[in-house]
From TrEMBL:
Its main location: membrane. The keyword Transmembrane helix applies. Belongs to the TMEM163 family. This is Cation efflux family protein. GO terms for molecular function: monoatomic cation transmembrane transporter activity. It comes from Thermopolyspora flexuosa.
Length: 212
C-alpha cells in the first residue's frame, strides 16, 4: 500500500501541473481581450488629450498583449513540457518590456518639442481606474500560477499586469495634477514608466521574480 501511494503522488503532481498550465493559458487569452479594449481606449484618450503618459499606458497594453501571446504559445502543443520553450518564452517576455522604453522617451521628447500640454480626459480617467482595480487580480493569479509551474514567463506576464495597474495609478495621479497646471508631471510619469520597463525586462531575462 505505501508503494502505491508513493507512485500515485507523482501522477497527481503531474495532473495538477497540467491543470495549472491550462489555467495559465486561459488567463492569458482572457487578458488579451481585456488588453485589446484597454489599449484602444487608452490610446484614443491619450492622443485626444495630448497626454504622453496616457498614450504610453495604452501602448503598454499592447506590450502586455505580446506577453500574453507568448504565454499562450508556451503552453500549447508539444511546447507544454519543453524547458527550451520556457527559456525562449521568458526572454521574449523580457524583450516585450524593452520595446516600450524607447517609444516613451521619444514620445516625451516629441511632445515637449512641439509644446503639447495634456488636457483633462474623462475617458482616460475611466479606463485607467478600471485597470487599477482589475489588473492586480489577474497579475497576482498569474504570478502564483507561474511559481507553481516553475514558469518565469508566466510570472513575467503577471508582473506586467501588476505594472499596468501601477502605471494606471501613476497616470491617474498625473491627470489629476494636470488640472492644477502641473503639466510636467505627465512627462515625468512617462519617463518613470520607461525606466521601470527596462528594469523589469532585465529581471525577466535573468528569470528573477519581481516583487511588487
Amino acid at each position: 500500500m505505501p508503494d502505491q501511494r508513493a507512485a500515485a503522488r507523482p501522477a497527481a503532481a503531474a495532473e495538477t501541473w497540467l491543470r495549472d498550465a491550462r489555467l495559465a493559458r486561459r488567463l492569458a487569452l482572457l487578458t488579451l481581450g481585456w488588453l485589446a479594449a484597454e489599449s484602444a481606449l487608452g490610446l484614443l484618450a491619450g492622443f485626444d488629450a495630448h497626454s504622453v503618459a496616457l498614450v504610453g499606458w495604452g501602448a503598454t497594453a499592447l506590450v502586455e498583449g505580446m506577453a500574453g501571446l507568448i504565454v499562450v504559445w508556451r503552453f500549447t502543443g508539444a511546447r507544454l513540457r519543453s524547458p527550451s520553450a520556457e527559456r525562449v518564452a521568458r526572454r521574449l517576455v523580457a524583450v516585450s518590456f524593452w520595446v516600450l522604453a524607447p517609444y516613451l522617451v521619444a514620445h516625451v521628447a516629441y511632445d515637449l518639442h512641439l509644446g503639447y500640454r495634456p488636457e483633462p480626459t474623462a475617458l482616460g480617467i475611466a479606463v485607467t481606474t478600471i485597470s487599477l482595480v482589475g489588473m492586480p487580480l489577474l497579475g497576482r493569479a498569474k504570478r502564483r500560477l507561474g511559481a507553481r509551474l516553475g514558469s518565469p514567463a508566466t510570472v513575467g506576464e503577471g508582473t506586467q499586469n501588476l505594472l499596468c495597474a501601477g502605471m494606471a495609478g501613476v497616470v491617474l495621479l498625473g491627470l489629476a495634477l494636470n488640472t492644477l497646471g502641473w503639466w510636467w508631471v505627465d512627462a515625468v510619469a512617462a519617463l518613470l514608466l520607461a525606466g521601470t520597463a527596462v528594469h523589469e525586462g532585465r529581471r525577466a531575462w535573468r528569470g528573477e521574480s519581481c516583487h511588487h
